[in-house]
C-alpha cells in the first residue's frame, strides 16, 4: 500500500515587523547562533536580526555568504559553526542563503531558523536544499530528517525588495499546483517521500487560487513598497502554501526542466529560479492535455507580472535543437522528478519546449492586436 506523508516546519511566523520578536522565538531553541547573510542582506536585515538576538542574550557569529549554495560553501560555513559550538543556524536572505543555512544546520545537528528577505522562492519551509556546483549548475537535492524549526517572514522587508523577486516567487508558487496535480493523478511520490495527503493537495490548490486572486495586486503593492492584505496573502502563498504544497504535494516536469536549463551557459544564468520555473511550467502545461483557455490563463498572469514566457524572454532566442536536447536530457535523468508524473523521453520534452515557446509567441501577438 502506498504511504501518505506530510511534513512541515515546526513554526511559521509572518507579518509586518515580524523580526522584532525573533529573539523571543530563538531563545527557546539555543544560546549560540551562527547568522548567515550576503553583503546586501546584512545591511537590509542581518544586522537587525543580530541586534534582536543580542537583546535576548543569544550569542552570535556573523558569516558572510558568498552567493552559491555549493558543497564548498556549505563546508566552509559548517567549519565555522562547529568551531563556535553553534546550536542554532540562522539563514537570512534569498533561496541560496537559506538552502546553505539548512545544510550547515544539518552538518552540526542544530536548530534551523529561516528568515527570508524576499518572497522569491518556496525554499524557506522545506526539509531540503538544492545544491549547485561552484559555477551554478544544478547538482542534487539534499534531504534532511527535519524541516526548519522556525521560519520568520517580515513582510515590511519583503515589500521593500525589488518587485522582480516577488514575481519570481509567484512563478515558483504557480508551478506548485500544476506539478502536484500531475503527481497526484499519476500516483507518484512527493519530495516528502510518500504519496500526497488530502492536506498536501488542499494546500497546493489553495496556493493557486490565492495567486490568481491576489498576485497582481500584490505585485503592484510591492512596487509601492506597501504592505497590504493582498501582499500578505501572496507572501503566504509563495512561502508557506507553495513550500508545503510542493514538498508534500509533488514536483514534476516544471522543476526538472528548470534544473535542465541550469546546464546551459550564457545569459540565462541571470534569470531567477522563479523565472526559469515560469517557462518550465508552460512546458509542462504543453506536455499535458489542456485547453487553450487554460494555457492562456497562465500566460496572461505571467505577462502581467513581467515574467518570461518565450525562449527569447529567457535569453535563448536562437537556441538550437541540440542545446534544448541537452536541457531535456538533464531534465529526464533517472533521478528527476519528471518521472513522478510522466512516462516520457527527452525528445518529447524538446518538442514541448518549442511548442510552449510558440504558444506564448502566438498569444503575445493576439494580445497586441
Ligand atoms: N530548498 C528548496 O526547497 C528550494 C525551493 C525553491 C528554490 N530553491 C533554490 O533557491 C534559489 C533561488 O533563490 P532566490 O531566487 O531567492 O535567489 P538567490 O538566493 O540566488 O538571490 C537572492 C538575491 O536577492 C538579494 N536580496 C535578498 N533580499 C533582498 C532584499 N530584501 N532587497 C534586495 N535584495 C535582496 C540577495 O542579496 C541575493 O543577491 C535556487 O538555488 C533554487 O534552487 C530551493
Ligand atoms: Zn522552485
From TrEMBL:
The keyword Zinc applies. Its EC number is 1.1.1.6. It catalyses: glycerol + NAD(+) = dihydroxyacetone + NADH + H(+). Keywords: Metal-binding, NAD, Oxidoreductase, Zinc. Belongs to the iron-containing alcohol dehydrogenase family. The keyword Nucleus does not apply. Residues 9-155 form the Alcohol dehydrogenase iron-type/glycerol dehydrogenase GldA domain. The lineage of its organism: Bacteria, Bacillati, Bacillota, Bacilli, Bacillales. It is an enzyme of class 1 (oxidoreductase). It comes from Virgibacillus indicus. Gene3D superfamilies: 3.40.50.1970, Dehydroquinate synthase-like - alpha domain. This is Glycerol dehydrogenase. Binds 1 zinc ion per subunit. Its cofactor is Zn(2+).
Amino acid at each position: 500500500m502506498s504511504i501518505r506523508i506530510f511534513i512541515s516546519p515546526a513554526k511559521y511566523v509572518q507579518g509586518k515587523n515580524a523580526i522584532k520578536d525573533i529573539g523571543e522565538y530563538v531563545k527557546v531553541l539555543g544560546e549560540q547562533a551562527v547568522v548567515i547573510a550576503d553583503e546586501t542582506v546584512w545591511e537590509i536585515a542581518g544586522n537587525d536580526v543580530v541586534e534582536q538576538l543580542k537583546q535576548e542574550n543569544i550569542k552570535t557569529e556573523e558569516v558572510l555568504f558568498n552567493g552559491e549554495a555549493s558543497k564548498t560553501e556549505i563546508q566552509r560555513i559548517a567549519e565555522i559553526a562547529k568551531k563556535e559550538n553553534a546550536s542554532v543556524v540562522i539563514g537570512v536572505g534569498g533561496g541560496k542563503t537559506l538552502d546553505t543555512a539548512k545544510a550547515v544546520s544539518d552538518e552540526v545537528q542544530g536548530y534551523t531558523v529561516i528568515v527570508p528577505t524576499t518572497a522569491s522562492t518556496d525554499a524557506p519551509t522545506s526539509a531540503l536544499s538544492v545544491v549547485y556546483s561552484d559555477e551554478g549548475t544544478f547538482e542534487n537535492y539534499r534531504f534532511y530528517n527535519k524541516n526548519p524549526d522556525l521560519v520568520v517572514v517580515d513582510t515590511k522587508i519583503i515589500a521593500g525588495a525589488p518587485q522582480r523577486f516577488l514575481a519570481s516567487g509567484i512563478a515558483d508558487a504557480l508551478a506548485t499546483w500544476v506539478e502536484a496535480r500531475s503527481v497526484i493523478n499519476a500516483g507518484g511520490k512527493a519530495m516528502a517521500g510518500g504519496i500526497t495527503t488530502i492536506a498536501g493537495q488542499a494546500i497546493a490548490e489553495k496556493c493557486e487560487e490565492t495567486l490568481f486572486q491576489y498576485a497582481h495586486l500584490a505585485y503592484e503593492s510591492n512596487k509601492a513598497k506597501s504592505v497590504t492584505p493582498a501582499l500578505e496573502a501572496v507572501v503566504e502563498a509563495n512561502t508557506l502554501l507553495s513550500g508545503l504544497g510542493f514538498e508534500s504535494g509533488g514536483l514534476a516536469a516544471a522543476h526538472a526542466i528548470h534544473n535542465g536549463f541550469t546546464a546551459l551557459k550564457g545569459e540565462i544564468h541571470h534569470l531567477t529560479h522563479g523565472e526559469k520555473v515560469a517557462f518550465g511550467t508552460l512546458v509542462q502545461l504543453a506536455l499535458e492535455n489542456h485547453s487553450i483557455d487554460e494555457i492562456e490563463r497562465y500566460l496572461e498572469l505571467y505577462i502581467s507580472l513581467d515574467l518570461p514566457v518565450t525562449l527569447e524572454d529567457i535569453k535563448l532566442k536562437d537556441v538550437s535543437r541540440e542545446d534544448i536536447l541537452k536541457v531535456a536530457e538533464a531534465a529526464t535523468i533517472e533521478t528527476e522528478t519528471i518521472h513522478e508524473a510522466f512516462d516520457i523521453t527527452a525528445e518529447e520534452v524538446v518538442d514541448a519546449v518549442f511548442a510552449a515557446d510558440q504558444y506564448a509567441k502566438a498569444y503575445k501577438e493576439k494580445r497586441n492586436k
